[in-house]
Write a structure and sequence with these properties.
single chain; alpha/beta; Rossmann fold; Helicase, Ruva Protein, domain 3; 5-stranded parallel sheet; two-stranded antiparallel sheet; 11 strands; about 15% strand; globular
Length: about 325
């Protein structure tokens, strides 16, 4: 067990090494207006070594936000525009025959970068989307008989239009579960949109953002995030939340039983713990409090709960279920 002295020392260490977060936020705010929540969630994924799925209608600065964040970190950035005719080899790379040398050589695809922007990921069929699975989970890519490790930090930031739009393909469940966070983006308010108009007319949204952090700082911060103290009561709170989605009846939520087809996987528990630690880091704390868990729970859990036809008929969403779970499970 960590003593109070250890926690206090850790708290000071986290506070001293998390100042760059404010620098990144200040840098991105030069271009992005009114999307502080989205930027914060992108930072959560970056610090917790988790991939992020952004969902929202076109024109809400999803692509611009990701590109701006990548510019703030001095790392290699690659954008992949997903289309119905995209092939897996267009993402990971392929073997090319060289007639002069009578041999095959490997041509690496755009996946070999630190920041991968998978733009409108649900525009491509499942075969293409699944090409990302090995890279997202194992952080390596196999081309032919060779496997190549991807450089750290490696982060997939995917955008998608709402599933109900025409011409889109639902993501495979195995791939969705590999995203640490699914963040839903809404319209900006009137004042923010006024600023967006002004910045656009002045050309300020096109300005280049200078790198304010290097990859080594991010890798070091990730190690610090994992060292943040989490009490056993917080661990139990996380498990109670996840198990409530798997067995609603056994956790005092009988009304949810017919609405849920499956609950959060073990990845939900792991990612909820990691995201809570990253949220504590963003708030420059060396320990996790219940509010950290509650703050990130919706984005960690919403894509890991299957809803039944009955729930769909009653217009009950994953967000409604997560909200009811949070309102029922006892906070330590």
């Amino acid at each position: 067990m960590q003593t109070s002295i250890d926690i206090e020392a850790l708290n000071q260490q986290i506070y001293a090494n998390s100042a760059f977060v404010d620098t990144i936020k200040e840098s991105t705010s030069q271009v992005i207006v009114g999307q502080e929540y989205m930027i914060e969630r992108l930072l959560l994924g970056l610090l917790a070594k988790g991939h992020v799925l952004l969902e929202g209608l076109p024109g809400l600065a999803k692509t611009l936000s990701i590109k701006t964040l990548a510019s703030s970190v001095n790392a290699k950035f690659s954008r992949i525009q997903f289309t119905p005719d995209l092939l897996p080899a267009d993402i990971v790379g392929t073997m090319i025959y060289n007639p002069s040398k009578n041999e095959f050589s490997i041509k690496k695809g755009p996946i070999f970068a630190n920041f991968i922007l998978a733009d409108e990921i649900n525009r491509a069929p499942a075969k293409v989307q699944s090409a990302l699975l090995e890279a997202m989970q194992e952080r390596q890519v196999t081309i032919g008989k060779e496997s190549f490790k991807l450089e750290e930090p490696f982060l997939v930031l995917a955008t998608q239009n709402p599933i109900e739009q025409e011409g889109t393909y639902p993501l495979p469940e195995a791939q969705v579960d590999r995203f640490m966070l699914k963040v839903k983006i809404d319209y900006p308010n009137k004042d923010d949109e006024r600023q967006i108009i002004r910045k656009t007319l002045l050309g300020e949204t096109m300005q280049k953002i200078d790198a304010v952090v290097d990859p080594k700082t991010i890798i070091k911060a990730r190690e610090l995030v994992r060292s943040i103290y989490m009490d056993e009561k917080i661990e139990s709170y996380i498990l109670d939340i996840v198990f409530a989605t798997r067995d609603p009846k056994g956790n005092g939520l009988s009304s949810l039983a017919p609405l849920i087809t499956y609950g959060g996987s073990p990845r939900a528990s792991i990612n909820l713990a990691l995201a809570s630690k990253a949220y504590a880091f963003l708030n420059r704390r060396g320990y996790v409090i219940p509010e950290d868990v509650r703050s990130v729970c919706m984005d960690v859990m919403r894509h890991r709960i299957g809803i039944s036809y009955e729930a769909e008929a009653e217009n009950i969403t994953q967000e409604d279920i997560v909200t009811q779970v949070l309102n029922t499970v006892v906070v330590p």
